[in-house]
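A further point concerns the way the authors explain their paired sequence and structure data. An entry of this sort, consisting of the sequence and the corresponding backbone structure tokens, reads as follows:
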Amino acid sequence: MDAYKAIVTKRDTRAYTNQPIPDEMLQRILQAGRMAGSSKNTQPVRLVVIRDREWLKEVAECGKFSQPLLGAQVGIAVCCAPDGSDFDAGRAAQNMMVAAWNEGIATCPTSVHDQPCIIEKLGLPRGGEDPVTGRKGWRVVVIIALGYPEPSVPMSMGRERMRIDDYVHWERWVGR
């Protein structure tokens, strides 16, 4: 699949089969995250890969809308340094989700609402407070659920995408 096709056909899905993800595919997905750009090449992102299904269920307790992790084969916690940008973490996450879709693996980003919970569960470094951002230690920006899509569940959820003319404004935003 070419990059453009992977981007425009990728949809988040929350239902997965029990088929395991081969190690070589998972390595390619992780490499795609590692290769994401970052501000001034600071590389503030680290990944925690969770393959144990029972452990994934425990980790899901740190989020309010983390149900996709319950059926996933793999979860990837995208972690960011105290002085790192959530934007950089998002770039790594999107790279991995598109790379996964290229391999036929579906994904869904899940929010982490309880940082103390996830920091404790994943054993993230705590560190001192960053003088610029005021953040303390590492944080989890998102956890990506991965698995082969369950064929009986439609990926689009029956919703069409917004028309491009409604999405894009040229030169300035003009009321329609």
User: Anything to note?
Assistant: The chain has one domain: 3-167. Residues 21 and 164 are 35 Å apart (CA to CA).
